[in-house]
């Protein structure tokens, strides 16, 4: 990757879901180690952007470009994107019946390690790291041996996403409303984990409406997505304005 090129570079990205055009034109840059907050009303395309960048097959790119770490992101499979260091936390993490949490995460981690040229972790070494990370995140150790997200509460599912992120240590993490369903301690765990990984160089795109979380994350950039386009870009004051006036009022101000 050219040292001057942002880690993630998106240009005029247009995406259809089924017969509906959801992203009309999205352009953004995320430098290595940066934190970008993405805000927008329901249906504005925030989740579509994350799922598209992660390579979900239901999201069809009809135009534009996306580059990640110097590569054509759109030319890579979802697995190749993950191995390259892109991580997505789902807004509603699904169950994976019959697949134990620890096996799922270790398999993913070893695939990433292989792509980095690192040796795989055996079950013993992995469990030591996983138990320590789970304890830091307030996730009961017993959940490592249960099927992925099966019977987990909303907050436990989100903590499990944080656990995956903590162990995978991605280059870029897309967090889609990671705070929803979280209690106060869970939100604190989000902030601590983001700060820890960011200090190690991970970049973030965080979708959130929760001003207290956004302020705690201290973003470099705040973007407002509206009807599939980036309508405004600013700093923390933009998030505060949106929290104060609402999305409808923010849109009126731009049009005026």
Automatic annotation (TrEMBL):
Family: Belongs to the ABC transporter superfamily. Ycf16 family.
UniProt-recorded Gene Ontology molecular function terms: ATP binding; ATP hydrolysis activity
Gene3D superfamilies registered for this protein in UniProt: P-loop containing nucleotide triphosphate hydrolases
The name this protein goes by in its record: FeS assembly ATPase SufC
PROSITE patterns: ABC_TRANSPORTER_1 (PS00211), ABC_TRANSPORTER_2 (PS50893)
Keywords recorded for this protein, A-Z: ATP-binding, Cell membrane, Membrane, Nucleotide-binding
Keyword hit for Transmembrane helix: no
PANTHER family in the cross-refs: ABC TRANSPORTER I FAMILY MEMBER 6, CHLOROPLASTIC (PTHR43204)
Top-level taxon: Bacteria
Domain ABC transporter: 8-252
SUPFAM superfamilies: P-loop containing nucleoside triphosphate hydrolases
């Amino acid at each position: 990757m050219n040292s001057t090129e942002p880690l993630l570079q998106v240009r005029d990205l247009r995406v259809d879901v089924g017969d509906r055009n959801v992203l009309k034109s999205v352009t953004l840059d995320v430098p290595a180690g940066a934190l970008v907050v993405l805000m927008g009303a329901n249906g504005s395309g925030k989740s579509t952007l994350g799922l598209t960048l992660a390579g979900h097959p239901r999201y069809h790119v009809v135009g534009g470009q996306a580059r990640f770490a110097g590569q054509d992101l759109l030319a890579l499979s979802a697995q190749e994107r993950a191995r390259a260091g892109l991580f997505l936390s789902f807004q509603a993490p699904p169950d994976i019946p019959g697949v134990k949490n620890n096996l799922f995460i270790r398999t993913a981690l070893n695939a990433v390690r292989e792509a980095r040229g690192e040796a795989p972790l055996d079950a013993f070494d992995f469990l030591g790291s996983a138990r320590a990370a789970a304890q830091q995140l307030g996730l009961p150790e017993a959940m490592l041996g249960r099927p992925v997200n099966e019977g987990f509460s909303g907050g436990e599912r989100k903590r499990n996403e944080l656990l995956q992120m903590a162990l995978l240590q991605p280059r870029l993490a897309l967090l889609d409303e990671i705070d929803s369903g979280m209690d106060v301690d869970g939100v604190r765990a989000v902030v601590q984990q983001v700060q820890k990984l960011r200090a190690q160089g991970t970049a973030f795109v965080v979708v959130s409406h929760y001003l207290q979380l956004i302020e705690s994350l201290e973003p470099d950039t705040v973007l407002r997505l509206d009807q599939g386009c980036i309508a405004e870009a600013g700093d923390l004051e933009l998030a505060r304005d949106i929290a104060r006036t609402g999305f409808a009022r923010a849109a009126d101000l731009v049009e005026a």
